[in-house]
Design goal:
Layout: H1 10-19, H2 22-31, E1 39-42, H3 49-58, E2 63-65, E3 72-75, H4 79-83, H5 86-89, E4 93-95, H6 98-107, E5 114-117, H7 124-132, E6 138-143, H8 146-158, E7 164-168, E8 182-188, H9 210-230, E9 231-241, H10 250-259, E10 264-272, E11 281-288
Parallel strand pairs: 5-6, 5-8, 6-7, 8-9
Antiparallel strand pairs: 1-3, 1-4, 2-3, 9-11, 10-11
Length: about 300
């Protein structure tokens, strides 16, 4: 086993020992030393699996299907060969980690629904939602950064998405514009990104700190609460992060369930640990059973 995991922040390694079951710690530390292969999702708004795999065969790009979904693939060839294709420039596929596809699969959007993606940039999950809905219904994709918003708009255009409005606003107040409006809401929250660390790439963990986690927790809580207030009674909320910290994961869900006591139902949650093919991820699904806002603010 490579010992390069020792390059990770000491405080992080100490916290990891307290978070991860001892029988899994060795495997996870080893996973941090691996460079994961490129993975992608076929953009069904522009092409089909058969058409894209035929193109890959013609261009001698090696691939294998993943078990995440029928439209996701693991690429065995050099990434540069992939992004040199016109098909990449034209948006026939979207390079995305396999773990990152799971929150939208959990959200399970349906055609003609109204969907909120409250922290949307750069658009990986927004474009995935739009493809599942086949550009029907309405997606509101929000981000609080104008620069990231431009990247989001560019990705939507490249992927052929036409059912999405981009909003640049503070997510924690977005519910005031859309009180109990959406059928489903996704909160892919800003997080400490521990699930994406790679020891050979110091940039993936250079901003990690205990202080940053505490600051992120406050943002995560209010983004989730805003999304809950923006979702109709009977609607679905999915909360996800790419970190392993219970403070940012399980404890956020415990907090919102206590805060909205009796108005939210816990459906399920899933923790993915870093591995050869997967980044670390946390996904929780909630169902809204009763209104969480004053009657005077409700739409319709």
């Amino acid at each position: 086993m490579s010992q390069t995991w020792r390059n990770l922040p000491k405080d992080f390694l100490k916290r990891l020992e307290s978070i991860i079951p001892s029988d899994k710690l060795h495997t996870i530390l080893e996973a941090y030393t691996l460079s994961r292969p490129t993975t992608l999702r076929v953009n069904t708004l522009k092409t089909t699996v058969d058409q894209l795999t035929q193109l890959f065969d013609q261009q001698q790009i090696l691939y294998e299907p993943s078990t995440i979904s029928p439209i996701s693939f693991i690429i065995k060839s050099d990434k540069r060969k992939l992004i040199d294709l016109d098909a990449y420039t034209d948006g026939l596929f979207y390079i995305q980690s396999l773990s990152s596809m799971l929150p939208v699969i959990a959200l399970d959007p349906k055609p003609n629904e109204k969907i909120l993606d409250i922290a949307a940039a750069p658009g990986s999950k927004t474009t995935q939602i739009a493809a599942i809905m086949n550009n029907t219904g309405q997606i509101v994709a929000n981000d609080n950064s104008r620069i990231r918003g431009y990247k989001l708009q560019a990705n939507l255009k490249t992927q052929g998405v036409t059912n999405t409005s981009v909003i640049i606003s503070a997510g924690q107040t977005l519910w005031q514009q859309y009180p109990e409006y959406f059928d489903r809401s996704l909160v892919d929250a800003p997080c400490s990104m521990e699930g994406t660390f790679v020891t050979s790439k110091p940039k993936t963990y250079e901003y990690w700190s205990v202080k940053a986690i505490k600051e992120l927790v406050q943002r995560q809580k209010w983004l989730l609460r805003s999304a809950v207030s923006a979702t109709k009674p009977g609607g679905t909320i999915v909360y996800s992060t790419c970190t392993l910290e219970p403070e940012e994961n399980e404890k956020i869900i415990e907090w919102i369930l206590k805060k909205e006591q009796g108005k939210l139902e816990f459906v399920n949650q899933k923790t993915m640990y870093p591995s050869e093919f997967m980044e670390g991820f946390f996904i929780a699904k909630l169902k809204k059973t009763h209104s969480t806002i004053p009657k005077i603010l409700r739409i319709g």
